[in-house]
Design brief:
- There is one protein chain.
- The protein contains one helix and eleven strands, in the order βββββββββαββ.
- With 128 residues, it is mainly β.
- The strands form two sheets. Strands 2, 4, 5, 6, 9, 10 and 11 form a seven-stranded mixed β-sheet that branches. A four-stranded antiparallel β-sheet has the order 1-3-8-7, with no helix packed on it.
- The protein starts with a strand and ends with a strand.
Length: 128
């Protein structure tokens, strides 16, 4: 079942910005943990940011702090990316983890890949 749908990717020039959206299908994000990830060709998947919709806590990978902002409402989690660079080119995916995960997992959600659900991803291409 398709539970998560990403949108907002596309082609952007270096220095530009994109706002990616991850929308829940058939449920809300209440008491979920939702993360954003990316994977470039030939490279491993990289965690970028995540948010606990229960308490609003957010977590970021060091490499995107200052350039990325994650936020959410009941149905959608957003990733605002600024100052984009060509090396940001990748498929960006969102993932959601149900509320039975404990705080220890949630607090490291930007480093985890064992989420319950994954979207299919949206392509982001940054040109110079």
């Amino acid at each position: 079942e398709e539970r998560l749908v990403e949108s907002g990717g596309g082609l952007v020039q270096a220095g530009g910005s994109l706002r990616l959206s991850c929308t829940a299908s058939g449920f809300s994000f209440d008491d979920w943990t939702v993360g954003w990830f990316r994977q470039a060709p030939g490279k491993e998947r990289e965690g970028l940011a995540c948010i606990s919709t229960y308490d609003g806590n957010v977590y970021y990978t060091d490499s995107v702090k200052g350039r990325a902002t994650i936020s959410s409402d009941r149905r959608t989690v957003y990733l605002q990316m600024n100052s984009l660079k060509p090396e940001d080119t990748a498929v960006y995916s969102c993932a959601a983890e149900s509320s039975d995960s404990d705080y220890a997992w949630t607090s490291r959600c930007h480093t985890k890949f064992d989420y319950d659900y994954w979207g299919r991803g949206t392509q982001v291409t940054v040109s110079s």
